[in-house]
Task: structure prediction
Amino acid sequence: VCFRRGQKERAITYFTYAVQFAPYDRALQEKLEKAMGVATTTRPIVSHTKARTTPKQLLSTHYSLVVNGISTLAALLFGGALLVAKNLPGHAALFGWVSEYSWNLVLCLLVGGYSGGVLLGFWGKLRPLTSEISEGKSLLPLNRVGKWMVFSALLWFYASFLLTIGMGVRRNRFSSSLITVYGSTFLFVALFTLTYSPIHLAKANIQVTAFSGNLLFPLVLLGWYTADRVRLHPRK
Result:
């Protein structure tokens, strides 16, 4: 409708949203290309000059291959983080509320959170992070709500969850994408609680359950944003 009315920019935006939820729908891709002024039926001009393929051109040409490759790598990293946390737990190295955390566990939480966020960004049917708690195009530029959400998560993940629920109740509007991300983070916390259980650390399970979300959740958001940068890239 926007395209027929001559509202080109809005049409491109809506087609981009549609394509990200159905990346293999060729009809949608053709509509997006048409809106962007790209002729889909034009044959390439044969040239004997070898041109360098840029990362953006590679992504445009082999989108499915790139997404599947990144997703496979992310899944391997997530599984590897769980295996390391279980088989190479390390020794307690931190203090305070996380006195039974090891640096091995911290690294596993960072890698697991980021790779889990990438997988959610590609396959969790999430809306773009920029439309939920972020704005702009630089590295995770959070808006006011997003800053409070991440800051409270760094202090205590469960407080961030309660804050988000409270804001949803106040506005009478909940983000299904954020609920999915929070629910997945709860699952990640449970997985690392079960895998990281050194015999010589009696309170390790309690501490992982209570505070691992503080590291996992911000990294899940960063992984989500990374996936957005790939899946929202216009495929010309």
Summary: The chain is about 65% helix and 0% strand. Residues 38-51 have pLDDT under 50 and may be disordered.
